[in-house]
Amino acid sequence: MLEVRNLSKSFGGLKAVTDASLDVQEGSIVGLLGPNGAGKTTCFTMIAGFTKADEGSVRFKGQDITGLPPHRICALGMIRTFQIVQPFAGLTVQENIAVGAYLHHHNRNEAMSVARDVGKRLGMGAMLDRPASSLTIAGRKRLELARALATGSKLLLLDEVMAGLIPSEITEIVGIIRQIRDEGHTFLMIEHVMQAVMSLAETAYVLNQGKMIAHGPPRELVRDPSVVEAYLGHGAAARLQEENHA
Amino acid sequence: MKSQSIGQLALAAAAVAYLIGVYFASSPVWMGFTINALIIAVVAMSWNITGGFGGLSSFGHAALYGTGAYASAILQVKYGVNAWVGFAAGILAGAAMGAFIGALAFRYGLRGSYFALVTLAFAEVLRICASSFEFTGGGSGLQLKLAPGLANLQFADRTVVYTALLVVVAVVMILTALIKYSRFGAYLIAVRENEDAARALGIDTYRIKVQAMAISGAFGGLAGVLYLQLWLFIDSTVVYGSAISVEALIGPIIGGAGTVWGPLLGTLGLHLLGEGAKHLLPNAPGLNFVLYAVVLICALRFLPQGLVGLAGKFGAFTKKKEAEDA
Ligand SMILES: Nc1ncnc2c1ncn2[C@@H]1O[C@H](COP(=O)(O)OP(=O)(O)OP(=O)(O)O)[C@@H](O)[C@H]1O
Ligand SMILES: [Mg+2]
């Protein structure tokens, strides 16, 4: 469904992403892992058309979408959420979701009723009339997901929708994501919460200092020495091994 | 937001009562004064589309107002075109100017105070051009021939003028409400609230902003034509001067930017205040502008949502039906 090939991006002298490739099959949940500053969000911004890649290409549903603006990409059925949540603060929850629903429902009543349905499905039924600014962080993360879903997009790029949530909230959202996937959606998700990645993703990619260093089922990745080193520093894998043997 | 309150209804009712009361006022001064205020209210409604709903605060709405007025005046004076055609042309010219300024400014991603400065610059350049070129009448302006009659869109009777203006104001407010509750309106508000999020949700934000400028331009051009048909005379300072740009933004900000009633309420309120001050201190011309400034500063400090927002705090209706099935 999504084929990313050799994306690169530098900010001034800093190489944020170098030669990154990944694939997402339709109907799957794919994780994108990596330590802070690895370039994960930068990958998303390039894939979704928010910044132009220096090099590389992106194909979505077989079509070359490299360099298309975000609204065109969204109309094709791919959408990103923001790591730093971006609610329409002055609007109610339902109105926020409706902005997404308007993409394919031009009539206000229709858009508002789609928004209501999506909100309820994500467990936000009781908050629909509250201003988005009054939501907790968990609520705002969920609102990001709801708005994205309301656009009718089939591929959702989720940027750390579980960061800052307490375990019970994580369990809840994991369930919701699985349910949405079963309804025919595909996910590429950046996530630091390993428990969630383990239970959701069939495959995951690991980015470190802008380079893809590993890819495979998450259970195997956590045992991969290069991945462990990326997170814990050089030599960490060896030290862990020694400790295990001792 | 969509919920209405008793306070807001009371405010709107007070405005309507005043506007009807003008018909029965003992002195003709009231009607003349309110006619001027209503024309400014239309400019305020023009500003409200971009500044209120779109968060694109212009400081140069005179560019749109003046373009509407000049387009109609040039056609009528230099080419002998009928006033009604001039009326339509003025609206279109305003829309075209709005779209042009928007297309240029937003192409280069201008926002906030940069956008405000560019619009101000446009209005000033247009003012200078209008005062220099021959076909705009140069420094002496343009004068329409006095020819009262419906065919020429000139009315000798003040009451007729006033009634016609009330109809225009009502139409512009209805259009504003339709925009507010349309897909376009929702997108425009989304752009104001968070442009990045709007882009992610599939909104072509550039296009929405340019369209908003075009609609705002149509309303602004309309106001300019109304002024022309009322006074039959325009010059560069009167229609392209920065006083119009200031009045365009101050009414909505005080009344409530991004609301349907705000521009009318703010403009009427301010003009009443200014007029009252004039009567109390007749020897201080320009005092009304000082007052406006004071009121504006107070409104920015204490009334972020304007009068409509303040009134909204009184007697808010709880939406029972929706609360139940939520
Ligand atoms: N617009 C920008 N201008 C300059 N540098 C940037 C910009 N965006 C990102 N960077 C840099 O690029 C690198 C990768 O950033 P990115 O946000 O993609 O990391 P990330 O993997 O999402 O990290 P995190 O887990 O902290 O969200 C970082 O060093 C960051 O400082
Ligand atoms: Mg990130």
TrEMBL record, chain A:
Top-level taxon of origin: Bacteria
Gene3D superfamilies: P-loop containing nucleotide triphosphate hydrolases
UniProt KW keywords: ATP-binding, Nucleotide-binding, Transport
Pfam families according to UniProt: ABC_tran, BCA_ABC_TP_C
GO MF terms, alphabetically ordered: ATP binding
Domain named ABC transporter: residues: 2-234
CDD domains documented for this protein: ABC_Mj1267_LivG_branched
Entry-linked InterPro entries: AAA+_ATPase, ABC_AA/LPS_Transport, ABC_transporter-like_ATP-bd, BCA_ABC_TP_C, P-loop_NTPase
Name listed for the protein in its UniProt record: ABC transporter ATP-binding protein
Species this chain originates from: Rhizobium lemnae
Automatic annotation (TrEMBL), chain B:
Domain of life where this protein originates: Bacteria
Keywords, comma-separated and alphabetical: Cell membrane, Membrane, Transmembrane, Transmembrane helix
Cell compartment(s), UniProt: Cell membrane
Transmembrane parts of this sequence: 6-25, 37-64, 84-106, 160-179, 212-234, 289-311
Topological type in the membrane: Multi-pass membrane protein
Pfam families found in the cross-reference section: BPD_transp_2 (PF02653)
Entries under CDD domains matching the protein: TM_PBP1_LivM_like
Xref: InterPro entries: ABC_transp_permease, LivM-like
PANTHER family documented for this protein: HIGH-AFFINITY BRANCHED-CHAIN AMINO ACID TRANSPORT PROTEIN BRAE (PTHR30482:SF10), HIGH-AFFINITY BRANCHED-CHAIN AMINO ACID TRANSPORT SYSTEM PERMEASE (PTHR30482)
Descriptive protein name: Branched-chain amino acid ABC transporter permease
Organism: Rhizobium lemnae
